[in-house]
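This week, look over our next protein:
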Amino acid sequence: MIRGMTGFGGVQLQWKKVKLVVEAKSLNHRYFDIAFYLPGGFGSLESKIQQIAQKHIERGRVTVSVKVTQKPSQDIVLNKEVIQKYLRYVKDLAREFHLENDLRLSDVIRLPGAVETRESFLDPEAVWPALEKSLQRAFQGLDQMRQREGRSLASDIGDKLKQMIQQMKKIKTRSKVVLQAKRKELTVEEFGAFQKGCDVNEEMSRLEHYIQEARALLKSGASAGKKIDFIAQEMQRETNTIGSKLQDKIVVGAVVALKSKIEKIREQGQNIE
């Protein structure tokens, strides 16, 4: 069954004391295109993430987002070398200017540079095994959504193909009526020329073939969007020829209806992978 190109999958990941949200989104696009929104330092994982994405998606604009929602607690570092320098300066000042050294611990830790807080570094290679599994799950969720969209698109296009067949039956029936009427009005030679000029059997046969091809594509599991777009173009070309050959009010109405259905099929084809 065909697949759509719109999908979303999200997973929450906890790795040690770190919490992350992993999301994969896809939208319509003529080709495969991917964008990354990753934490700082995670750029080295882009090629690995792209390989996972391409196993699930052939065509579409893909966005992969990894957000850190809870980081490890910050480390508090006591800078002893800085404190020792402060204390030496305080002693020197007290001795030189005969001052009382009343420096307390609470004063020391407030001195600039005495105490620092440092964020724990998140190693992307260490996180990768857990992140890879979460990405697979996110893309599986995205796949399921694209499959549901594909079923909906296949149903809609299938209905349009049925409606095309009804219009084609109308054209076939009307062409016989037109020929019968012209046979009575024209000479044998004139009628022969008219019949040859308005013969649409070849175009109708091709339209029927394209309808069968489109139905086969809707049932296939392959990427079908570009093929359906091509088939719709060919359908439009044959329909235009039918309209130019058979200048009849009823036929023209059926041709307009055909072109409308074909255009909608082509639009839906742009939503198919």
Summary: The first helix runs from residue 46 to 56. The chain has a mean pLDDT of 90.
